[in-house]
Design a protein that fits this description.
Largest sheet: 6 strands, antiparallel
Order of helices and strands: EHHHHEHEHEEEEEHHEEHEEEE
Shape: globular
Strand content: 25-35%
Helix content: 10-25%
Number of strands: 14
Number of helices: 9
CATH topology of one domain: Antithrombin, Chain I, domain 2
Low-confidence stretches: 1-44
Structural class: alpha+beta
Mean pLDDT: 85
């Protein structure tokens, strides 16, 4: 399979020189494994199997991958809601927050490092590992397109430390731009960058009218497109019943394929690894056994068990039935990150003194994602934006019921005491 030529994006959205290729963190998906099956479409001609990395990983890179996986399962546990679909890119969130962490100090930095799962790694090790790992994986599988772009957008005239901007350029290959946020063209330019980076799959990551308090957006965008090594034959796709955990059912297009696949099972789930291209990338699907809900399975997983799962596959003759589906997802990650220990960054108490001499904090971490799984393969995209606002001091906004007292301060005598519960109409 030859690599698809990428279009050259226009204007400031040109970021091709700063694209990296890397692996995409997997998602927990549903699979149906049934009895016998039919024939399959084999791997495309000219696709070489990838059996090893071009060089050994450093100790810091190994720890970075382990940290990314710890963060992935921590985020999965926090974001999962019973009965709801879920599709996140922990890698995208980690990179956007990793850039932001370069501006943090003190307890804010410590909390961000812990929430992202980095353990005892120093900032220099984290940044260097991000950079070298991304460079290592460039072109790892020419038959699979995986691209990562980073950018930092600042409000015109807002003071930002040059050392911070140098760090995100060097470690994350970030494009840095200063814009007049009061001009509607600013949001258009930022959204066009994300749209181009995700091949049009993610749009409008920032609002059309940028709030006056916003001074910076830090954005990661990730795109993946891979054809199955063994493709499903569309003529074998059937309308079948999908059984929800609440006992209800719905009809879905179920793709079918029989071949040798990496497989394993235990008392909680069956698992299959569905490879793309030259097999460097794959979709790992975990199907809970009857009596085990997908939410219980998601809650029970952690990075340690994931390592055991990844090492436990053995080839088996298998009939795979997988729904064809397309999903768009959006989530604000503030509460999830707060639960993982990243607390100070979301309050005026945040210490981002290495980012700017002005007082700033994170008002929102938002991710949009999209995935399409079909007979040919998988296309997926995600963008994460970290919104940084300028502290305006402590605000007391009496827009809800309150108590009030009229007193004489010197003697301490209270003259009147009151409660405004229902203001009169003006």
């Amino acid at each position: 399979m030859t690599k698809r030529k990428r279009p050259d994006p226009p204007g400031r959205a040109r970021y091709a020189a700063r694209l990296h290729r890397s692996s995409v963190a997997g998602a927990l998906l549903l699979l149906t494994l049934v009895g016998c099956g039919e024939s399959f479409t084999g791997p495309s001609d000219g696709v070489d199997e990838i059996t090893e990395l071009p060089r050994a990983l450093s100790a810091a890179e190994i720890e970075l991958i382990a940290a990314s996986n710890r963060f992935a399962f921590g985020l999965l546990a926090q974001a999962n809601r019973p009965g709801d679909n879920l599709f996140l890119s922990p890698l995208s969130a980690s990179m956007a927050l990793g850039m932001t962490m370069n501006g943090a100090s003190g307890e804010t930095w410590n909390q961000m490092r812990d929430a992202l799962g980095f353990g005892s790694l120093a900032e220099e090790e984290i940044n260097a590992s991000y950079k070298s790992l991304l460079e290592l994986l460039v072109g790892l599988d020419p038959s699979v397109e995986t691209a990562i772009g980073n950018s930092v957008w600042t409000r015109q005239g807002f003071p930002v430390h040059a050392e911070f901007l140098d760090a995100v350029r060097e470690a994350f290959g970030a494009e840095v731009a200063e814009l007049d946020f009061a001009n509607p063209s600013a949001s258009t330019q930022i959204n066009e960058w994300v749209r181009t980076a995700t091949r049009g799959r993610i749009e409008d990551i920032v609002p059309k009218v940028i709030p006056s308090a916003v001074v910076m957006y830090l954005i990661n965008a990730i795109y993946f497109k891979g054809s199955w090594t063994l493709q499903f034959d569309p003529s074998d796709t059937r309308a079948e019943t999908f059984h929800l955990d609440d006992g209800s059912t719905r009809t879905v297009p179920l793709m079918n394929l029989r071949s040798d696949f990496p497989y394993q099972e235990n008392d909680r789930f069956q698992a299959v690894d569905l490879p793309y291209g030259g097999r460097a990338f794959s979709m790992t699907v975990l199907l809970p056994h009857h009596g085990v809900s997908v939410d219980d399975l998601a809650a029970s997983l952690d990075a340690g068990e994931w390592e055991d799962i990844a090492a436990g596959f053995r080839d088996r003759d298998l009939q795979v039935s997988l729904p064809r589906f397309r999903m768009a997802y959006e989530r604000t990650l503030n509460d999830d990150l707060h639960a993982l220990g990243m607390v100070d960054a979301f309050s005026p108490a945040a210490d981002f003194s290495r980012l700017s001499p002005a007082g700033v904090w994170i008002s929102e971490v938002k991710q949009k994602s999209w995935v399409d799984v079909n007979e040919e393969g998988t296309e997926a995209a995600a963008a994460t934006v970290v919104t940084v606002v300028e502290s305006a001091g402590i605000e007391l906004r009496a827009d809800r019921p309150f108590l009030f007292f009229i007193r004489e301060r010197l003697s301490g005598t209270i003259l009147f005491a009151g409660k405004l519960a229902t203001p009169p109409e003006s």
